[in-house]
Amino acid sequence: MASTNLIRFGSNNANATPTSSDMWLPVYGGEVITAFEEFNTFIPKVNFKTLTSGNTMKFPAIWKIGSEYHEAGTELLGLDVDTKEYSISLDDRPLVAHFEVDDIDASMAHYDARTELSRETGRELARQMDRKIAALLVNAARTAADTGTNSFPVGNAIGAGPGYNADLLLTNGNVPTEAKGAALIEIIAAVNQKMDQLDIPTSDRCAVVNIPLYYSLRTLGLPSVASTTVSNNAAGGLWGRTDVRTGGPGLGDGQGYMNPINVLGTPVYCSNHIPSTNITTGPTKYQGNFAKTGGVMFHKSALGVLQLQGVQTEKFRDVRRQSDFMVSKIMMGGGALRPYAAYEIQGSSA
Q1: What is the three-class DSSP state of 289?
Q2: Strand, coil or helix: what is 196?
Q3: Shortest CA distance to 347 belongs to which of 179, 234, 140, 143?
Q4: Are 191 and 158 in contact (CB under 8 A)?
Q5: What is the Cα–Cα distance from 198 to 301, expressed in whole angstroms?
Q6: Non-local CB neighbours of 197 within 8 Å, separated by 6+ positions
Q7: How far apart are CA 328 and CA 323, in angstroms?
Q8: Can you list the pairs that 159-165 forms with residues at least 24 positions away whose Cβ atoms lie under 8 Å?
Q9: What whole-number distance in Å separates Cα of residue 341 and Cα of residue 256?
Q10: Whole-angstrom Cα distance, residue 337 to residue 281?
Q11: What DSSP string describes 93-137?
């Protein structure tokens, strides 16, 4: 049977190798694929304040008052108590995310580029704020001594150094995942003991670790598969369960950001914002060598964080360039209030 001679009117014969779809017009669906919005873990877990004006906020602190037996006939004159204040200041300059959009580019796009880019600048500022709070917490944990002549605790030494600086051996790929999770439980127990001895309230404590460390914790007691055999690693007892099918936290338990794993009464969260490099730029209080930082355990009173009037967005119409210039900015700052209430968890995420 002879084939008909179809006119392939989609062909562009100006091309060296024409095809039948050269001139088909693409239809853009209009859906914009942007980066997933990362959950911000630290902001609700510290003393977070918003300033309407000014650049510094003072936080008073009072240490324990004593007591004594009253002897008959003696006058009560009042006992002394240590008081001090901490000053938390905003950074010198704002953190800024910005972009410029050309009119023609925007009009030819099949989606609202300005809106999506504006949202992304807000997400970036939120990410950076979370990372800076994490760095402040780790540096608070590394404080060797509080300032002044008072009875306030002087640092968080457990073992050989300030903070709890146990190496979880995560740099060694041969260490079983369960062993890393078990090491983290021991660290959380040791930090809880230290906090109890310092009379730090049990409420508002939490731990935030990097994602590999969080999931190593989550494997404890869960059924594991080795070849064709299903076994219950870590004997399942750590989570109070003995059935192989339900050992450890349930498969739906703990989502890291929102639903933490409870360890000895301490909620453990995960975050992508734990610092992991040697930071030598920017304001000094956010700098430090965090190459072995795996996370931080702290009480809410450990840190004070300020922001000035929240995230602000500005738009500038540049007629000369026929474009829109947009800026999102935030003024923030922070510092340690009770450094003895923060503890670093060391261990590389490699």
Answers
A1: strand
A2: helix
A3: 179
A4: yes
A5: 13
A6: none
A7: 17
A8: 163/342, 163/343, 163/344, 164/190, 164/191, 164/194, 164/297, 164/343, 164/344, 164/345, 164/346, 165/344, 165/346
A9: 22
A10: 24
A11: S-EEEEEEEEHHHHHHSSS-HHHHHHHHHHHHHHHHHHHHHHHHH
How many angstroms separate the CA atoms of 300 and 201, rounded? 10
pTM: 0.78
Q: Residues 6 or more apart from 201 whose CB is under 8 A from it?
A: 299
Query: Cα 129 to the chain's mean position, in Å?
Result: 9
The β-bridge partners of 297 are 207, 343
Residue 348 near residue 170 (C-beta atoms within 8 A): yes
Rounded to an integer, what distance in angstroms lies between the CA atom of residue 298 and that of residue 107? 50
Show me where the domains of the chain are located: 43-65+79-222+249-346
Give the C-alpha separation, 184 to 213, whole Å: 8
Select from 218, 208, 206 the least CA-distant residue to 293. Answer: 208
For residues 348 and 184, give the distance between their C-alpha atoms in angstroms, rounded to a whole number.
13
44 SS3 class: helix
Tokens of 79: 């006992």
How buried is residue 306: exposed, middle or buried, by Cβ count under 10 Å (0-12/13-18/19+)?
buried
Contacts of 72 (CB under 8 A, 6+ apart): none
Q: How far apart are CA 45 and CA 205, in angstroms?
A: 9
307-308-314 Cα angle (round to 5): 115
Bridge partner list, 225: 230
Average pLDDT per consecutive 10 residues, the chain (350 residues; last block may be shorter): 66 81 70 70 89 88 83 88 85 89 80 79 88 94 72 56 45 63 85 89 92 83 50 44 42 57 89 92 92 90 88 84 86 90 73
Q: At residue 168, what are phi and psi to the nearest 5 degrees? A: -80, 5
